[in-house]
Every structure is written in C-alpha cells, then in structure tokens.
Amino acid sequence: MRRVTFDLDVLRSFVTGVELGSFARAAERLGRSTSALSAQLKKLEEQAGTPVLRKAGRGMVLTEAGETMLAYARRLLELNDEAASALRGAQLEGGVRLGLQEDFGESLLPGVLGRFARAHPRVRVEVRIARNAELLDRLASGRLDLALAWDAGVTTPYAEHLGDVPMCWIGAGGLDPARLRPPGEALPLVMLEAPCLMRTAAITALDRANIPWRIAFTSASLAGIWAAVAAGLGLSLRTSCGLPPSVRALAPQSVMLPSLGSLGLRLHRAEADPAPAITQLASILARQWQELPLAA
C-alpha cells in the first residue's frame, strides 16, 4: 500500500479555514489567493482519498472524514510548530509572568506549560492565580507580562479576544436541584466574594425573573465554591471551564431558572512588542484555548 505524506502547508490552510469559519478569510490571513487555497484543499482530498468538505447552503462543512482529518492535522501542525520553536528558541532565557483565573488552573494550564517547557526549557514561568481585578491591576503595574481574564468591560491597550463562553447554573453532581428551592422559599446561592462578575450576573438575572434568592455561602476561592456546591448548600453561576467531577452544569429549564448569556475571554499583554518568550507563551495559550471543547 502506497504511503501518503501529507503536506503541512496544505494542512495549515485546511485548519485555518475551519477555525475561521471561512476559507476566503483563511486565504487572506495566509497571504494566498482563494484559488490557490482551493487548489490546496483539492490536493488534500486527493491525498486523503475522500472528501473532507461538503457544501451546506452557501458554505462548506466538514464530512465525517474531514472531522477525523482536522484532529490529526492539528496534532501534526502542533508537533511541527513545537519543533520549529524549539530549534529557533532553544537559547531563549529569562522569565515570563502569566496571570489567570482559577477556572483555568487544571483545564488549560497543564497543556500550556507542557508545550512551552518542551520548546523553551530555559525560560522560567511564574504563574499568578487571581481574580479579574487583581490580574488587570498587576498587568497595568508591570507585575505581569500576560493575563488571561474574563471580559469585564475593562479595556487594555494590547488585548486579544479569544472567544465567548456560555455562563451556566452549577449544582451538585448527584443532587436534585428542585430540592434546593421548596415553594415559597428563596434560592440559595453559593458565590465568590463581591465584587464578582458572575455573582452580579446571577443576581441580575434572578431579579429580572422575579425569583427570590439568598446568599447561602461565600468564599474567596473557587475551590471553596465547588466544595459548598458539591455539599448541596446551593447553586452557583460560572462557566463550564474547569468544573470538578463533584458538580455539574444544569440546564436552566430543569431548575426553572433564567437562561444566561456568554462571557468573553481576553488575553492581555503588558507591551505592544513583548519579548520572544512572552510572544511564544501567548501563542501557545491561545492555541490551547481553541482546542478546548467548550471554546467558542
């Protein structure tokens, strides 16, 4: 059987088009004509021996084979980019100071640090886990190089919008949420200490729906919130980022609660032209985020 060697340049065009939702936009980003990119996609389907895209309305969607190809293409490009970074940046030294929310400590950070350490083993990484206000304050005062923070309407000069994540009601894994709110009683809430974006969002949504509520538990840390929710003390409001097994996201209709909107996520840089190590970590972080199942 003849071995097939996929063209990484073709795979990059394919992945970029899928991630942008438009192959015309992909051609523009990659500096190619749309006809050249179409030729690359045709080459990819010839190499794969099966269609990877099909028409749907005015656009294109992945076939089943295309979904498989996308997963492998991302892995191949990741290894290629890691190898290139390692060869170009093996001598990079110094440090990078990254700040992020507790939500991403287990779901995002291990993959980011693993990729970065393999490419730049001599660079020291300092991580600060904190809430939005502290992260942006540290960035502004020069105590952080990068900050991954929820979009609270606060702008910084060098910020990149990574995506939007739906907010959801969170309850204990094995608890019937209806038991938390007997008829005529206020809904118990488990929340971070004020000020808190999601605390405000929960209270606002409940007030608009004329649903009585009470704060049953507060904590300065997300670990405390998860413990209280798992113990059945009340419901919380977060995103599905980094949920532990002891809690679960609830469908609003299952608990007769108002639906919630989404929360934007931004990657803030302290400088317009940061050091190469900072740029590399920012790139890896953005790519790792896009690969999370919940990224939007």
From TrEMBL:
Gene3D superfamilies for the chain: Periplasmic binding protein-like II, Winged helix-like DNA-binding domain superfamily/Winged helix DNA-binding domain
InterPro entries in alphabetical order: LTTR, LysR_HTH_N, LysR_subst-bd, WH-like_DNA-bd_sf, WH_DNA-bd_sf
Pfam families: HTH_1, LysR_substrate
Superkingdom of this protein's organism: Bacteria
Example GO molecular function: DNA binding
Keyword DNA-binding: yes
SUPFAM superfamilies per the UniProt record, alphabetical: Periplasmic binding protein-like II, Winged helix' DNA-binding domain
Keyword Transcription set for record: yes
Coiled-coil residue windows: none
Residue ranges occupied by any HTH lysR-type domain in the UniProt entry: 6-63
Keywords linked to the UniProt accession: DNA-binding, Transcription, Transcription regulation
Sequence similarity: Belongs to the LysR transcriptional regulatory family.
PANTHER family, sorted: HTH-TYPE TRANSCRIPTIONAL REGULATOR LRHA-RELATED, TRANSCRIPTIONAL REGULATOR
Protein name as it appears in the record: LysR family transcriptional regulator
Organism annotation: Dyella soli
